[in-house]
Amino acid sequence: MANRTHEGRIAIVTGAAQGIGREISLQLAARGAKLALVDLRKPVETAELIGNGAIAIQADISVDSGWAELAATVDKQLGEADIVVNNAGIYPNITIDELDLEAWRRTFAVNLDSHFYSAKHFVPRMRKKKWGRFVNLSSNSIGLPITGLSHYMAAKMGVIGFVRGLANDVAADGITVNAILPALTNTPGTSGVPEEFKKNIWEGQAIKRFAEPADIAGPILFLTSDDARFMTGQALVVDGGQYKIS
Length: 246
Ligand SMILES: NC(=O)c1ccc[n+]([C@@H]2O[C@H](COP(=O)([O-])OP(=O)(O)OC[C@H]3O[C@@H](n4cnc5c(N)ncnc54)[C@H](O)[C@@H]3O)[C@@H](O)[C@H]2O)c1
Fold this sequence. Notes:
The protein is α/β, with parallel strands linked by helices.
């Protein structure tokens, strides 16, 4: 029987329709959490895979109104959330020569503004419970020589800065805030990455294989559990030993 470390918890996962977000959702549910699955299109497949205890919500997490609506739905259908996994993200490859302000702003809105909105809506709810968990997806690409990602790397570095600052503001109420930095991972979002590029990445890792979503979900289970109660403001690299941030 699965370890029911998250029994009774209510968790919100953004970008839950596919990839890392879907896997995190399945694993949190297997540990006993009730799930609010959020994506641009209603993540019905993920909800069906989980069955009872999961609701699928269509929302754009890059705008405040998306968060206001999803918060009201979660309150009504599941109760006040204990856990937010800010997973939804976009990573268009655009070199600085082609990058325009619109793409820059969109990348920040989806990958970073969303984390701010999540805190504004859910910190008050978690404060009441004297317990809460935010896990925010950054990326190990911030330390790698990959072209076409200046906007993405800037936003994902911002995720770490926000995590560090927010952790200080909420620690007294039992709320922890941490970032996860995955390696290049096998998801629908990376299906177009050329094989040679992927192989070069694996060869630079101590563990020489493509990361799977389940490899990333494991540390998120830990960070959202009671076991990680004394760990906050951290940036955890989950990349098979490719890059070490100290
Ligand atoms: N896959 C990788 O190699 C990798 C590596 C490091 C970090 N990450 C990060 O992990 C997270 C998940 O990556 P993935 O590869 O599973 O992504 P993916 O592209 O496979 O899935 C992302 C999901 O987020 C949703 N989404 C995008 N914008 C949204 C919005 N405005 N509102 C609601 N939902 C939205 C998409 O619809 C999609 O279902 C991202 O934050 C990404 O930056 C991924």
